[in-house]
Amino acid sequence: MFPKNSVVTDSSACGIFGVITFSCLSFWGEIGKRGILDQKLIRKLVHINIGLVFLLCWPLFSSGIQGALFASLVTGLNIIRMLLLGLGVYHDEGTIKSMTRHGDRRELLKGPLYYVLRRLGTERLPYNRNKSFAGSIGMATAGFLASVGYMYYFASFGYIEASGGMILRFAVISIASALVESLPISTDIDDNLTVSLTSALVGFLLF
Question: Where are the transmembrane segments (predicted)?
């Protein structure tokens, strides 16, 4: 935005990103407070929405460490906000209803850093009755399509070069993450953590 002054560019980008992020959070908070949608559904939509907003705003920041640090400020502030809510330092009914499964503020302490798709459908996996075929397929498909979409998005800015090979690697990462998410260990530990680690590890090996 301001090519001659990267600090001004990143500060402006941070402001824009912050306004969009907290506007989205406020919107979903109102939806949760009014009970318009199911609480668990709202929680998933919040995770999807905020993750996509972060990626959409990324090109606004300058390249390099400085841009990355500025980009992390809004996310960092939101994490602190979730921790304060979870600890009961202050109360925000809308945020709690839109970010938790059961309306318990302590759920926020389990990790506001991760987005994950959980159970969908009714037909359960034979090796994990807490997961379904529809949920696993939906997770792999959504992750793959989002990855491809953002590949072309970032390619339009010249950050990467879109290719068929990259699309294939995205498919492998999406399938691997969905498989790990479906395993019983992901239920016992936390699939937010296992899916994130799997995506990072497989991505590191493939790229």
Answer: 6-29, 41-61, 67-90, 133-153
Residue 50, pLDDT above cutoff 50: yes
Residue linked to tokens 């705003």: 57
Helix residue spans in 58-91 (DSSP H): 65-87
Residue type, 123: E
Distance CA 43, CA 188 (A): 21
* Distance from C-alpha of 196 to C-alpha of 204, rounded to nearest angstrom: 12
- Residue 118: what pLDDT? 44
Give me the residue label for tokens 């090996």. 205
Q: Are 197 and 173 in contact (CB under 8 A)?
A: no
- Tokens 């979730």 found at: 82
Helix axes 164-182, 191-206, angle to 10 degrees: 150
Q: Where are the domains of the chain?
A: 6-110, 124-206
User: Whole-prediction pTM value?
Assistant: 0.57
pLDDT digits (tens, 9 = 90+) for 110-131: 654 434 544 445 578 888 887 8
- Here the contacts of 102-109 (C-beta below 8 Å, separation 24 or greater) are 102/39, 103/39, 108/82, 108/83, 109/83
User: Per the structure block, which two tokens stand in for 67?
Assistant: 């841009």
Report which DSSP code applies to 58: G
- Identify whether the C-beta of residue 29 lies closer than 8 Å to the C-beta of residue 81: no
